Amino acid sequence: MQLQELNNRFSESSAELLLCMSCLNSSDSFRTYDERKLICLAELYPSDFSTIEVIALKNQLATYIIDMRTSEEFSSLRSIANLAKQIALPVATATVERAFSAMKIIKHRLHSSIGDDWINDCLVPYIEKDVFDLIPNEDVIQYYQKMQNRLIKL
Known about the structure:
This protein is mostly helical. It contains 10 helices and no strands.
């Protein structure tokens, strides 16, 4: 009856996603770990995982489960939520440190003579370089050229 209720509430792809996610449950030393399901989870997101990355993931998962099962830091975790908190905190900390490092570079180079709005405008492209590298310089020049009349053509 419970299985039928789940089937009625969730689509097949949602159910597959939940089953794959359950492999990350850290209780009982990752008892529910299943490498095949985790690879399937990566394959559900083709825009995030290329074919080469999925192949590399197969090798990385073996190391992952060994590390998880032998680490005191992770062996005490009892849920996926605890695992997410344990893993996400260093990532969040690194992101904040990266932003402050970028701000420090920009502020230092400009001799701390700029306002908050202008520094924010400078920091976004600096921090998100990989996104802005995809925009051709010619497109940016054309955009600014069309904004207002200029004394000279850019």
